[in-house]
Amino acid sequence: MEEKKLNFLEEIIEKDLAEGKIDSIMTRFPPEPNGYLHLGHAKSICLNFGLAQKYGGKTNLRYDDTNPVKEDVEYVDSIKEDIKWLGFQWDKELYASDYFDQLYQWAEDLIRRGLAYVDDQTQEEIRAGRGTIDTPGTDSPFRNRSVEENLRLFREMRDGKYADGEKVLRAKIDMAHPNMMFRDPLLYRIKHASHHRTGDKWCIYPMYDYTHGQCDSIEHITHSICTLEFDVHRPLYDWFIETLGIYPSHQYEFARLNLTYTLMSKRKLLELVQKQIVSGWDDPRMPTLCGVRRRGYTAEALKMFCDKIGVSKRDQLMDIQLLEWCVRQDLNARSNRYMVVQDPVKVTITNWPEGKVEWFDCPLNPAEPEGATRKVPFTGELLIEKADFMEDAPKKFFRLKPDGEVRLKYTYIIKCNEVIKDAEGNVVELKCTYDPTTRPGGDPSQWRSVKGTIHWVSTAFAKELELRNYDRLFTLADMSQVPEDKDYKDFLNPESLTLAKGYSEPALLEDKSGIAVQFERTGYYFLDKDSTPEHPIFNKTVALKDSYKVE
Ligand code: ATP
Ligand code: MG
What we know:
alpha/beta, 7-stranded mixed β-sheet, 12 helices, 23% strand, binds adenosine-5'-triphosphate, binds magnesium ion
């Protein structure tokens, strides 16, 4: 087998291991518990956990919970569920808030060393004072406070003496630094808000840049992998670690995953939920992991997808059809097959003995012809798809037509003898005869074949289903290109959900596979969580076929 080329992260890790810089690797997945995980996170999870697995290392799950206002235990729990569903197990479950005491101590150390100060400027004043890329910033009038004063004020901030926004703690680095990140970055802000873990212990909370690297360092993370937009933060990440003289974790950036017709910003996904544009975080049209799971995407398919797209250092817009292709690949190999008719027309078999039921043993998966089967009942009245019959059919139409023959999948060849219409001229019934010699498994010398095979169900045994057929949630391929004068919600697809009825063979409702099933000739469908035995509901996972080609 051809050896797969190493990606740039694997190259770095192999070099670090070979040079003895590290004994083993340690990665972390650092979600902020302010929403549900989406497909982009799946890429990050596959990368962090996948690399650790490959090189015999470990991965921590660390919640980046430094903003109590937006965070919630609901999200904390869902994130764990999603990671487990993807099939990964973290080493330790940790929280940035576990380190609030340590981070606070380090902040006091920086103050004592003259490397941090309390600033009373407003947010706007601070922003204005930072300057621009071309012009240096200006020093805050509070920049040269004494160590004693800074310590006192910082402790008072901690003790709740000031209101939100009244003061901040900043690092004292260089207001003219070419990297804007170094122009006295904020370390702490005041927020009188209860935290989902630390309760009311703190009313000051550390900023991302002051938190992330130190948390990595405390956990001895060897390779801290994040998305490209953080590359400008890396020098500051290193600065805190070097200045504090702590374990040297290193940050590496890869391109975030963007998908066509898909939005992956938690803020916008939250808006879709709050405005009830979708039914919830797990609406099957959502790109969230709970959404695609409910739709019937499998963890295996997502991992296959992440593996196929690889990691790159350049931003990329991936085709959603590649993901759908992976879902189809996985389900094609594993899913059970059933026949379901969606838009039916009645077929009466006029030469079928009155009241007779014949049960056919049909494979659940044609890839395993000797494998498990389901029993499918054949009777004198059946349903087929309206689209599988055509009155004035062209020559190449090989399904049912007047005086034509077709095979009913797994069973007999039937012939259409008479077309019954209602007053408006709609076809309401097809009177057919079946040929008993065409039963599969019969006398081989009698075997004859016809060009068309169609699916069907017995009316007497059919189970009615609610089908939720999904299409893309957005109509714009590249959702990063929403024009200035428009909102992303202007590109919602009004036909992203259409409801239909289905009539299924009875065995479908006994399916125990736990994954999406294939409705033969139609698509993959997954039992919805709102389903009841009296009212079965199926979500369309993905269509059976697509013209999309994977090189
Ligand atoms: P969002 O912008 O959707 O809110 P985020 O980056 O703020 O995402 P976090 O919870 O902070 O979300 O992300 C946890 C990890 O997942 C981070 O390491 C982040 O880089 C990574 N991640 C988030 N979105 C993507 C994406 N689209 N592709 C790859 N990795 C991602
Ligand atoms: Mg974030």
